[in-house]
Write a structure and sequence with these properties.
- By secondary structure, the chain is mainly alpha-helical.
- It is built from three helices and two strands; from the N terminus they run ββααα.
- The protein has one domain.
Length: 82
């Protein structure tokens, strides 16, 4: 399991596949939408991605559950607009 975040000119690209059945980028995107973050360069993106990696490292593979558990671990609430 490898996570790579490159910051080239304030742009982050997540180039990760965590196992054969789940990619990190779509889960991060879904979690950002859930909390109402539209700018992927927002600093919370890194926190959410790290929390997602931790949830996946504990064996969870369902993307919806991964995002929910990661947000819960951070104490972040879903946006009412999501």
């Amino acid at each position: 399991m490898v996570a790579s975040s490159t910051d080239a000119g304030a742009r982050r690209e997540w180039l990760v596949v965590v196992g054969p059945d789940i990619g990190l980028a779509p889960v991060v995107q879904a979690a950002l939408v859930d909390v109402g973050v539209s700018n992927p360069d927002d600093p919370i993106t890194d926190f959410i991605a790290k929390a997602i990696v931790n949830v996946i490292a504990n064996g969870e593979r369902n993307p919806e559950v991964v995002a929910e558990r990661a947000l819960n671990a951070l104490g972040v609430r879903k946006s009412s607009a999501a």
